[in-house]
Write a structure and sequence with these properties.
Layout lengths: L7 E4 L17 H9 L5 E7 L15 H9 L7 H11 L3 E5 L6 H22 L11 E5 L3 H17 L7 E3 L6 H10 L2 E4 L1 H8 L7 H5 L1 E6 L7 H20 L5 E6 L5 H9 L6 E4 L9 E6 L16 H6 L13 H14 L4 E5 L2 H16 L3 H4 L2 E4 L5 H13 L4 E4 L14 E5 L5 H8 L9 E6 L4 H8 L17 H14 L16 H8 L3 E4 L2 E4 L21 E5 L5 E5 L4 H4 L5 E4 L2 E9 L2 E6 L5 E22 L10 E21 L4 E7 L5 E11 L2 H7 L6 H15 L11 E6 L9 E6 L7 H7 L1 H14 L24 H14 L3
Parallel strand pairs: 3-8, 3-9, 4-6, 4-7, 5-6, 7-8, 10-15, 11-13, 11-14, 12-13, 14-15, 18-22
Antiparallel strand pairs: 1-2, 2-10, 16-17, 18-19, 20-21, 21-22, 23-24, 24-25, 24-26, 26-28, 27-28
Helix pairs in contact: 2-5, 3-4, 9-18, 12-13, 17-24, 22-24, 22-25, 24-25
Length: 831
């Protein structure tokens, strides 16, 4: 996990051999990595984190004896100390957050008091006479970020109850996939309901009167993997939880919240923001007392592409004059997905059960298919035991893959972060991460999938063509730290629709405003002015005359637009979905769409449906082109570096504020496989998309740039390259990834009147990422410049200034000019 780690000993490639315990594969994964990567420089760094012994405690006196016996039959003779500390706090009715490492048994701290409460109530009911035997039955609501995790927790809880021979505790999952007849039974009978925030928002809370049996007896709310709720998603989930607690209290319940988290900075503050209480009201348990096997972290740089001589290549003179380049001259490297597929095939061939985490759905499909192709050359049977797993699959596909992974039918999965969180996949030997996962927490969560339950594990981080990846691989110390989970539930673009939903569930009164972080009634009054709410003596009510449902005003996952279904035109079969906000760029007419190794071409995109047909042996892929503009709405904060006076550093103005980003997909390129060279460009007539959000931007005069050596012709490319690298490095400082943010650079912005670079949040109203960049501007600029300078390419590459998101085809770009401009900013920075 991220955060304080066990004693770590760093060893160079070729150092000591790491022992592998548990089920031993045919070849040690660490030896395999050394053999394949050390000789050609791909294995940049190897970090060995030594294991530790565990510390146990006695079972709590209040714990149900049958349940304790069930744990013992499953091999848990005694709980770990942190489990008992957390369980005692939860049982005592204190909101609790348990922030410990992957595989440390956090679920015990929730299930022990939850199941004990149900069983104690059964015994007391049996002994009671008259009306005392008809009191409210205690219930527990478990929430996870993904359906896969909820299904995994259900399987584990059912195993526990079976081992304990407990038959009077009824548990079930209930989400969007659950049949209506099953929901009826769950509403009437279930003691423990496992679900997700989306189901609460769209179904349970709006229909709370049908769920009042559960809400009246709600004793515990379990929020699993709460560190996953960051940015806009975190704000949405915090407001859903506050709506849930408000309704439960209206029914006479006073639930205790227990949150499970990875190791993060300030877990009590994160939990307090989710629940809507002061941090002092949260009990935080952060010392991990579970045993841990030795974990090896390999930092991997893809090989140079074939035919690259890397000889006679020099950086432009301007960059050398500004700061001499001292590293090795670099060249184009293989993609992280191609390198990951090779590593995954090698690991499977060696007998190592493995997961490969890939950043995108498309990438997961590509890695799985390339791995299968490599394995067919070795063993056709092995190729059939590799699959892809990602969001957008139909529920039955996901469940089948999860079961095959648990039983060992599958040896390897290429997955998005859908399997990052909590799903018990014990027995894995290795994890390969194709690119930096976005945050340190995610990196350690993914690495922790290997070697769960105290066994040894190996994790490989393969650097993608991204400035942050290159920076992290060559600066290992940046990985071993802690970061806070940031989100802002008071963002009006997030809060307003939740106030509408809350008012529809129960009239919104002045007493409710502090729960939602409101200092006054200004926002409800504005919603009343817009015709969304009605003011009455009892408070604000949802305007039932409106045609829409209040819960449909927002999407918890931050897209703000409904998902687009992918439908095969010939059969009408639904293949999957794609986020509405990204549909224009990913499933536009003519786009190539991959699904479980099959290739489809989009025929039409209309009415939230993309019609596709299958194409075999398609020799190209597609990439959208777009254009965008930024309009400044207001400035919240401002600072100035330098004075610009004669003989002093140039004046640089930094601002943070509200902006409006207008973008439109204008066309797409066809790129020939395997090198992805452009073989054709095609126009598209797509609608404009307007995003009101927040941004950080810096501006300086063209004259100052010219005096530094970046003239009028070079300036657009220099600013564009600096913008790309800045977007790539901001996730080092904020809990986001480059897909959460966007940017724009211009040599003359109509509002600032000078060269300006914007970096904005990719969500309505902002998500706090741009604001973090403003607060850490000096550290951000320094890391950005260092990443570009340390890259050994001549003119710019994906590891420094090129961006996979660029709608302009990464043109123009001027690497040396970017170094000069960023150096100019640093010279103006305050001491």
């Amino acid at each position: 996990m991220s955060g304080p780690l066990p004693a770590a000993g760093r060893c160079p490639p070729g150092g000591g051999v790491v022992a592998h315990t548990g089920r031993v594969p045919a070849a040690d994964p660490v030896d395999l990595l050394r053999a394949t990567g050390a000789r050609d420089g791909r294995l940049v760094h190897l970090e060995v984190i030594e294991g530790r012994a565990g510390s146990t405690a006695d079972w709590p006196q209040w714990a149900d004896p049958d349940l304790v016996e069930g744990y013992r039959r499953l091999g848990v003779a005694q709980p770990w100390q942190h489990q008992v500390l957390a369980a005692d706090a939860v049982h005592a009715g204190r909101h609790t957050v348990l922030a410990t490492g992957t595989g440390s048994g956090k679920s015990l701290a929730a299930w022990l008091p939850a199941v004990t409460a149900v069983r104690s109530d059964h015994r007391e009911r049996a002994a009671a006479t008259g009306i005392a035997g008809h009191r409210r039955r205690p219930s527990t609501l478990y929430l996870s970020p993904t359906k896969a995790l909820a299904a995994d927790q259900l399987a584990g809880l059912e195993r526990l109850l079976a081992a304990a021979q407990v038959r009077d505790v009824r548990v079930a999952t209930c989400d969007g996939d659950t049949a209506l007849t099953e929901r009826d039974w769950i509403r009437d009978h279930a003691d423990v309901v496992l679900s997700n925030p989306d189901f609460l928002h769209f179904s349970l809370l709006p229909a709370h009167r049908r769920w009042q049996r559960l809400l009246k007896g709600l004793r515990y709310v379990v929020v699993d993997e709460c560190h996953a709720y960051r940015g806009v998603l975190g704000a949405h989930v915090a407001l859903v939880l506050r709506r849930l607690l408000r309704l439960a209290r209206s029914y006479g319940a006073d639930p205790t919240v227990v949150a499970a988290s990875a190791t993060t900075a300030e877990p009590a503050l994160t939990a307090a923001r989710l629940v809507g209480v002061a941090p002092e009201e949260i009990t935080a348990v952060t010392e991990d007392t579970a045993p841990a096997g030795r974990r090896t972290i390999a930092l991997w740089q893809p090989a140079l592409t074939e035919g690259w001589p890397a000889e006679g290549v020099d950086l432009p003179a301007r960059a050398e004059q500004d700061e001499p380049f001292t590293g090795e001259v670099d060249g184009p490297r293989r993609s992280a997905t191609a390198e990951t597929a090779d590593l995954l095939a090698d690991l499977v061939t060696a007998g190592a059960r493995s997961l490969a985490f890939v950043r995108s759905r498309y990438g997961a499909e590509v890695v799985a298919e390339q791995t299968r192709r490599h394995l067919r050359e070795v063993d056709g049977e092995l190729a059939g035991r590799v699959a892809a797993y990602r969001g957008g699959y139909l529920p039955e596909e996901r469940r089948a893959l999860e079961e095959d992974l648990r039983t060992g039918e599958l040896l390897a999965l290429a997955t998005t972060n859908a399997l990052e969180l909590g799903v018990d996949v014990s027995g894995l030997d290795a994890v390969v991460m194709a690119g930096w996962p976005g945050t340190r927490v995610s990196m350690w969560q993914q690495a922790g999938r290997a070697g769960r339950a105290g066994t040894d594990g190996v994790a490989v981080l393969v650097a993608s063509e991204d400035p942050l990846d290159a920076f992290v691989v060559h600066h290992p110390e940046t990985i071993f730290g802690v970061e806070a989970t940031t989100f802002d539930p008071t963002n009006p673009y997030v809060l307003a629709p939740h106030l509408c939903a809350a008012a529809a569930e129960l009239p919104l009164s002045d007493a409710d405003l502090p729960l939602f972080g409101l200092p006054d009634e200004a926002l409800p009054a504005e919603l009343e002015r817009r015709g969304l709410l009605r003011r009455r003596p009892r408070g604000w009510f949802w305007n039932i005359a409106r045609p829409e449902r209040p819960q449909d005003l927002t999407d918890l996952r931050g897209g703000g637009e409904p998902p687009v279904q992918i439908v095969e035109s010939g059969t009408g079969a639904v293949l999957g979905t794609v986020d509405g906000a990204r549909a224009d760029a990913t499933v536009h007419p003519g786009a190539v769409y991959l699904h479980q190794g099959r290739t489809f071409v989009v025929e039409d995109l209309e009415d939230d449906v993309a019609l596709v047909h299958e194409e075999t042996d398609l020799a190209y892929r597609t990439k959208a082109r777009s254009e965008s503009s930024v309009r400044i709405l207001s400035v919240r904060r401002e600072q100035t570096w330098g004075s610009g006076r004669q003989g002093e550093p140039a004046e640089v103005t930094w601002r943070f504020g509200d902006v409006e980003v207008t973008s439109r997909v204008t066309g797409y390129d066809r790129r020939r496989l395997p090198g992805l060279e452009i073989v054709g460009s095609y126009p598209l007539d797509m609608p404009e998309r307007v995003l009101p959000t927040t941004a950080v931007w810096w501006a300086l005069s063209a004259e100052a740039c010219a005096e530094a050596g970046v003239g009028k012709d070079a300036l657009p490319g220099a600013l564009h390259a600096a913008e790309h690298a800045s977007i790539g490095l901001l996730p080092l400082l904020a809990t986001c990834d480059r897909w959460d943010i966007g940017g724009l650079s211009t040599a003359l912005h109509p509002q600032t009147g000078v060269p300006t670079v914007f970096v904005h949040d990719g969500y309505p109203g902002g998500a706090g990422f741009a604001e973090r960049g403003y607060r850490a501007a000096l550290e951000w600029v320094r890391a950005t410049r260092d990443a570009i300078v340390s890259c050994g390419c001549a003119d710019g590459c994906p590891a420094c200034v090129q961006s996979p998101k660029c709608g302009n085809g990464n043109s123009p770009l001027d690497k040396a000019g970017a170094i000069t401009v960023l150096s100019l900013l640093l010279r103006s920075a305050p001491a």
